[in-house]
Amino acid sequence: MSNTLLRVALLLALPALANAASQPLPLPDRDTAAPAVATPVTAPAIPTTRAALDPAQLQELRRRYAAWQGLPAAERARIRDAAQRMAALPPAQQQALRARFDAQDQRFRDGWLLGPQLGQAFPKLQGLFGYLPAEQREPALAILRQLSLDQLAQLSLVAQRTPPQERDQVRSQFLALAPGARDAWLKQNVGH
To answer: What is the Cα–Cα distance from 83 to 18, expressed in whole angstroms?
Structure first.
């Protein structure tokens, strides 16, 4: 497979791979192992040329590629590892994981384009960070990527407890904080 086609395949599978990266893969017991003959599972065909894509598909690939390029190197490495683990699974298990991911709400799936760490936290951060003005998107993502897992968990609580009419104010306060002031702000706002 050419390098371009490999990239396109990875971009098409990025949300499912990110989801797989955050969850342990269930290993079958020896007693319940799959039969020796597995039913073949066909993946959706990946167009081999740009001309074979309709405009919506091309726009979606560009969006996913931009998301991939925006991820820190460590997050991309986690996704590559997840892709390798997923590729090693039996086809039926791969299909089941994809189906489980595809059954989720679109907003949930789109959150995984932010990478494994933010993708896992995004459903709870959605209310506070899901609908940002364009000028706040990149700075907000940069700040969110700097947060530890504990800080993301605390911010998730703040996001869930913030009434819709106060979200803009709370988000602006948080984004204006110096890195050293975030812990104290989070503790103060989680305590409410």
So the answer is: 9
* Cβ atoms within 10 Å, residue 70: 16
Helix axes 167-176, 134-146, angle to 10 degrees: 60
What's the pTM? 0.64
HEC readout, 132-146: CCHHHHHHHHHHHHH
Across the range 12-22, mean pLDDT stands at 46
Answer whether residue 158 shows pLDDT above 90: yes
Q: How far apart are CA 120 and CA 155, in angstroms?
A: 13
Tokens linked to 169: 């104010």
CA-to-CA distance for 159 and 52, rounded, in angstroms?
A: 42
pLDDT at 60 over 90: no
Q: Which residues contact 161 (CB under 8 A, 6 or more apart)?
A: 192
- 3-state DSSP: the chain helix, strand, coil percent, rounded to 5? 75, 0, 25
Distance separating alpha carbons of residues 25 and 185, to the nearest angstrom = 36
Take residue 132 and report the two structure tokens written for it: 């940002």
